[in-house]
Amino acid sequence: MRDAVxxxxxxxxxxxxxxxxDWDRAGRLPEDVVRRLGAAGxxxxxxxxxxxxxxxxxxxxxxxxxxxxxxxxxxxxxxTSQGMAAWTVERLxxxxxxxxxxxxxxxxxxxxxxxxxxxxxxxxSAIATTxxxxxxxxxxxxxxxxxxxxAYADLFLVVARMGEDGAVVVxxxxxxGVRVRPVADPLGxxxxxxxxxxxxxxxxxLGSLLGGGRQPLSLLVTTALAYGRISVAWGCVxxxxxxxGAAVDHARSRHxxxxxxxxxxxxxxxxxxxxxxxxxxxxxxEYASRRWDENAPDLVTAAVMAKYVSAGxxxxxxxxxxxxxxxxxxxxxxxxxxxYRDAKLMxxxxxSDEMCQLILADHALSRR
Length: 368
Fold this sequence. Notes:
Elements: H1 2-16, H2 20-26, H3 31-39, H4 58-71, H5 73-92, H6 95-105, E1 111-114, E2 130-134, E3 137-147, E4 155-162, E5 165-172, E6 178-182, E7 195-205, H7 217-253, E8 255-256, E9 259-260, H8 265-293, H9 299-325, H10 335-346, H11 353-366
Parallel strand pairs: 1-4
Antiparallel strand pairs: 2-3, 3-7, 4-5, 6-7, 8-9
Helix pairs in contact: 1-4, 4-5, 4-7, 5-6, 5-7, 7-8, 7-9, 7-10, 8-9, 9-10, 9-11
């Protein structure tokens, strides 16, 4: 399996090359890049082999995700979105739905998960998008915002309210009543295809409800976010690795006051802190992926911890890298400048730092 991960990492390095900054400035990934990775199963590396997926472990998928994140956080964000969609189908869909949707997602089809709304961010219990059933059809109405990868998605997995319960509705992009409106000038991951998805009385077959619907809203949220949080955490490891590389290269080659920058003690402190941050984030992600692969009872908590630790270190680490490079990195298009914006976004998405802190505090208080 490690050989397959190494081969995939080498292929994506060649595919991305030095184009990530151009994609970031353009606010768009090339469609062929997304489709090629999707067709190779590399957007959804944990889909089981029986559905045509690579069936990588969380640990192997995580290392690959970190590698992609070190090259382009926007592309990694699309991977996270696609993986969340596949995991949600695998966990909530009935056998027929899984057999239909997962092979599509493992072979080039694309999907995005639509959670957030204008009044439902961290408080997903405030979701106002509704689905109602009339015979063998359903009607879906609502407005979703900040849907990652929506610009590239063939399908949307829309989290909605179904009476007192929740539901996930599989919505084709071209269904009547669906409109996609790009988010203008996002702070970070500018090429990740963030968009609003507007749903105006979208009529679909009843089979579009994953697992028949009427699941607890908390289950729907936890299912998708657990995958998303580990993926984001590994992506943050990638950001940190890229920042370590850029800062060390600069500190070796740049001379001030007659010696390399890295030999000045205050700069050396920055390098030490940055390298330590990458190591700590890596260990947190390795633990979370190990708990995931073991299907351990605390895997959700481990995912939250990994996301919280890695996102915080990535945001601080990217700021440190910008400080080390100074004017050399303080320009749009430079790796560390992009990392600085992307990493800040990681402290917000898939559960803000504050939400992660509350979850981890509850876990600490519940322990005996």
